[in-house]
Design brief:
Strand order of the largest sheet: 3-4-6-7-8-5
Largest sheet: 6 strands, antiparallel
Strand content: 35-45%
Distance between the termini: 15 Å
Number of strands: 8
Number of helices: 2
Radius of gyration: 15 Å
């Protein structure tokens, strides 16, 4: 199923992928769009994203950052699929329930088969996770 543009509510105008069960149903839902500053991924922190200390679970932050790698590199992926082949991150702070969690970044280099990306996740503008990764472009199997 192709990406879907949300028609109403808080996420009107954003895109998500309802056919991605883990990112949409379990970890997210996560959203993507391109605004005046470039590609951005976002979601609203919910109770299901929290750990026992009532801050966002590190695994959730890393999952979202992995989603964001592809959002940031969307243009360079040429509408195709990809795999994360390397991922690094540093935890800076923990988002709390209700906060707007957002990721922005940049493509450092895009080659024929590899794309190098770095970015930062913020919660209500507060830096929470620094991340970088390498994506491998793959052709969709017929």
């Amino acid at each position: 199923m192709p990406p879907v543009t949300i028609e109403s509510g808080e996420w009107a105008g954003w895109i998500n992928w309802p056919d991605e069960p883990f990112e949409h149903d379990t970890a997210g839902p996560f959203y993507f769009r391109i605004d005046e500053q470039g590609p951005v991924a976002a979601f609203r922190a919910e109770r299901k994203h929290m750990n026992g200390a009532q801050v966002m679970h590190g695994g959730c932050l890393m999952t979202f950052a992995d989603f964001a790698l592809f959002a940031i590199a969307n243009k360079e992926m040429d509408g195709g699929y990809g795999l994360t082949v390397a991922f690094t991150s540093e935890f800076l702070d923990g988002p709390k329930v209700g906060e707007w969690v957002e990721a922005r970044g940049e493509v450092l280099r895009a080659g024929r088969s590899l794309v190098f990306v770095r970015g930062i996740v913020t919660a209500d503008g507060r830096p929470c996770l620094n991340f970088s990764g390498t994506l491998k472009k793959v052709r969709k199997q017929a």
